[in-house]
Amino acid sequence: MSERLVDAYDLVIFDLDGVIYLIDRPIAGAVEAVGELHRAGVPLAYATNNASRRSSEVANLLTGLGVPADTAEVVTSAGASAAVLAQRLPAGSRVLVVGADALRAEVRDAGLEPVERAEERPAAVVQGYGPQVGWADLAEAAVAIRGGAQWVATNTDRTLPSPRGPLPGNGSLVAALRTALGRDPDLVVGKPQPELFATAARRVGAKRPLVVGDRLDTDIEGAVRAGMDSLLVLTGVSGPADLLAAPPEQRPTYVAGDLGGLFDAPAAAAVPVDQVDGWRLDDSGGPRLAGDGASVDALRLLCGLAWSGGDGTKVEPDSSAARDALHALGLRT
Description:
Elements: E1 11-14, E2 21-22, E3 25-26, H1 30-39, E4 44-48, H2 55-64, E5 74-76, H3 77-88, E6 94-98, H4 101-109, E7 113-115, E8 124-127, H5 135-146, E9 150-153, E10 159-160, E11 167-168, H6 170-181, E12 187-188, H7 195-204, E13 209-213, H8 216-226, E14 229-233, H9 240-244, E15 254-256, E16 279-282, E17 288-291, H10 295-306, E18 316-317, H11 320-328
Parallel strand pairs: 1-4, 1-13, 4-5, 6-7, 6-8, 8-9, 9-12, 13-14, 14-15, 17-18
Antiparallel strand pairs: 2-3, 10-11, 16-17
């Protein structure tokens, strides 16, 4: 049996926002964790739905934060979307780009011509996150799509993490077009679709990759669709209450407070569990949490209750330590 969770895998695929950094600030412990993996010779990859940076820009950002990364290790939804369009369209086809300059550059590098207006009769519209995207951009996209252009979304993340909390993501802008057009995109490339993870694994020939993410509806569901194990870290978007309510297709193999969980024994992060050192559930008179220990271990135990049909959010504390743990998990005020 592996001594550390990471030892059972031949590739670790990281999400970025909410796992390695928030916007452009490293998350506590992330630099040290990735450094330890480098020293151990563990192959790494980074798969991000954020279409506002190119792979080279992401690699440079990571390196600047103290996480050495190579462009070949980074898979972005912008690059993947441009590659898909290049397969679908003749070389030189016009593509209306709704998003950041990075997405335009990827489209251009794929042998296609990025345009900005529907009157240029684009063959496709590609929509990705960009902080400057506004109503005028969405209006041009709506006209082009109604005129017959294919509609490709880099991702449908409703929010993106920030130091101020979740902010509107590309999925929120896709929803605006969906409402205006009365239909869904023709194709969504990024997570939870499995292609980003599959691409990362193919690049190094990995047979047993581990996905590490902070979002149940993208990272974890994408790993499930790709047939890969996953670790949810509680440093980004999805929190304990979200995990307890997760449907089967969004349930991770492991959960940890942060990337330090990669170096725990697999059994110390596995989820769900029926019993865990330090904590116990008493069902007499309603579920009550008793004992003492790490709050994330209490969460693993509560997942066992919730995923078998119980209500993990209605558990009452049976000790001061249990009260503190439920408070730390955001399950009790």
